[in-house]
Amino acid sequence: ALCELSGQELAARIAVHVDGALESLKDNFIYRLEQSRLRRLLREWLEAEKLRTPFTVVTREGKVDAELSGLKLQVRVDRVDELPDGRHLILDYKTGEIDKKAWLGERMKEPQLPFYCTIHETPLAGLAFAQIRAGSSRFVGITPGARLPNMDKAVIDDVPFADQIELWRKNLERLAERFREGYFEVDPQKKVCDYCPHSGLCRVDETGDGDEDDG
Questions:
Q1: 61 dihedral zone (left: phi>0; alpha: psi -120 to 50; beta)
Q2: What contacts 86, CB < 8 A, 6 or more positions away?
Q3: Does residue 126 register a pLDDT over 90?
Q4: Residue 36: is it exposed, middle or buried by C-beta count within 10 angstroms (0-12/13-18/19+)?
Q5: pLDDT tens figures, 157-214
Q6: What pTM, to 2 d.p., does this model score?
Q7: How do beta strands 151-153 and 88-94 pair?
Q8: For strand 151-153 and strand 138-142, is the pairing parallel, antiparallel, or unpaired?
Q9: Cα separation, 98 vs 102, whole angstroms
Q10: Which end of the chain is less crowded, N or C, counting CB atoms within 10 A of the terminal residue's CB?
């Protein structure tokens, strides 16, 4: 178990996996830099994970075929942990910035994990982003059934977790139905349009809507 590894044992395991992942770069000048960076980063993250209560990783990058209001989708989740009481915790790795409001409102910025919650058959203890960044690794999510170290709570509606999952289901079904119906309104969220090549069609630059903060 992770929590039973000494610091030296943990460092040795990290080295084996990092060196294996970078094998193709061994003759590249960046090899040593990347090797050192990844070893430090993973050591920082796993030392934080050692502080958790016992868990077992049951799924890594698992793919699930699902249907949402007539749309056939394939969802891939980075990781699912099983807790001692049998409930599952869904995790999604992130290396960039995390928006605590990513799961809020009818038009979620990050709908994948909420959707996965609506189709997951095993009772859930929560869901979280696992942000792996040097000096600022943390969890950001909703975990009413689990205690996580370095945890920041995501902003969601003030309802019980089971009700939140049902609310996500309804919002996602509504979005899927609009998509199937060809609903297309110039109603961008902040930064969504930054790299879109079709601004000449919707003329979002003329409306100024793309520069406004989310409501």
A1: left
A2: 122, 123
A3: yes
A4: exposed
A5: 889 999 999 999 999 999 898 888 877 676 666 666 777 777 677 666 665 554 444 4
A6: 0.81
A7: unpaired
A8: parallel
A9: 8
A10: C
> Which residue type is seen at 99?
D
- Supply the DSSP symbol for 140: E
Name, in order, each residue with C-beta under 8 angstroms of 136's C-beta and a sequence gap of 6 or more. Answer: none
Letter string b/e over residues 16-30, b meaning 16 or more CB atoms within 10 A of that residue's CB: eebeeebeeeeeeee
Please write down the HEC assignment for all residues of 145-193. Answer: CCCCCCEEECCCCCCCHHHHHHHHHHHHHHHHHHHHCCCCCCCCCCCCC
d(CA 178, CA 165): 20
Any idea how long the chain is? 215
Give the mean model confidence (pLDDT) for residues 15-22: 94
Query: Which residues neighbour 201 within 8 Å (Cβ) at sequence distance 6 or greater?
Result: none
Contact 92, 129 (CB under 8 A): yes
Question: How many whole angstroms separate alpha carbon 168 and alpha carbon 179?
Answer: 16
Q: How many CA atoms lie within 13 A of 40 on its CB side?
A: 10
| H/E run at residue 202 | helix 199-202
Give the Å distances, CA to CA, from 22 to 19, 36, 41, 105, 173. Answer: 5, 11, 15, 41, 42
